UniProtKB/TrEMBL annotation:
Protein name: Capsular biosynthesis protein
Pfam families: DegT_DnrJ_EryC1 (PF01041)
Originating organism: Bacteroides cellulosilyticus
Amino acid sequence: ALRIKDFTEEQRDRMIDEIAKSEVAVNVHFIPMPMLSFFSSLGYDIKNYPQAYENFKGEISLPIYPQLDEEKLDFIIKAVKDAYLKVTVDR
């Protein structure tokens, strides 16, 4: 996972879209429990867990697997850097 400090949820989502345009699989896998329907139906509210939300809004999951060679890794790094620049410049 990659955590980008001081990112908004909207910026994170834009970054995911930009990285995906490079055909790099990227997603959000670590969703705080209070944001899951089961826990929210029990009365849990993400507003009571500000650190969990802070981590969630700036975190994305990047590819990691045994066949990830240096060439693919360089491609992923470039896609992430390019997306970051595009999202932060277009604020």
